Amino acid sequence: MTRPLAPTKDHPLVRWTLTAVALGFIGLFLVLPLVVVFHDALGDGLTAALAAIREPDAIAAIQLTLTAAAIAVPLNAIFGIAASWAIAKFDFAGKGFLVTLIDLPFSVSPVVSGLIYVLVFGLQGWLGPWLAEHDVKIIFALPGIVLATVFVTFPFVARELIPLMTDQGRDEEEAAVSLGASGWATFRRVTLPNIKWGLLYGVLLCNARAMGEFGAVSVVSGHIRGLTDTMPLHIEALYNDYQYSAAFAVASLLALLALVTLVLKSLLEWHFAEEISAAHHH
Fold first, then answer.
1. Residue 48, pLDDT above cutoff 60
2. How far is the C-alpha of 254 from the C-alpha of 238, rounded, in Å?
3. Crossing angle of helices 155-168/56-89, nearest 10°?
């Protein structure tokens, strides 16, 4: 009687075909677009590309993107740690509902989330008249961009930490508390060392999403060039103005940031996998 082949012993033709299809998809949808971006960015020469990046509106867009990410990412890290700690270490009514709420930005269109902020904080929104009366600007200003960025990115850290902290269990924290450690000391000396790689990984993904966000930020920004345009919005504005080389030059900078994020992500995955392997070994 012939024994069935193991999943890892398929016919070589099947393996080669699947590998070719996978590489074809990666080449067509990932590598080729990156090549086109960098090729078109240098279409008018390196000097023109650097000039497009140094242009005042581009500098303002870069600064705004980095500022929004610098505010949103730490807020999401704090929220992610708090939410994952509560979900993994405690039992309480509504835990499943909280997990569902954390996933909400994954199911809501970024454009819809931006529109919700306009309906709440806009001039004709629920809080608009009160904000205008007290000269507080949220929509078409940095606070609105930060709020939209926080909303679309807040699941990333929590979603990395919840399964990690759940797998680790509560034994170490309970032992620390039984020995007299305070809540802060328990977190700093027990919990944080155990989740550091997962936390860095989640923060990295959150930062990448924050810098590349378009839909929600587009709705709340007002597209004021030099003031409320982030890098993705500035790229769109340049492209719509038929400044293709300048648009691709700024896009290449955003792509470089994405590639740096990818390299760091791979390094963190490697460290994370080694740590897990070492833990299983012991």
1. yes
2. 14
3. 30
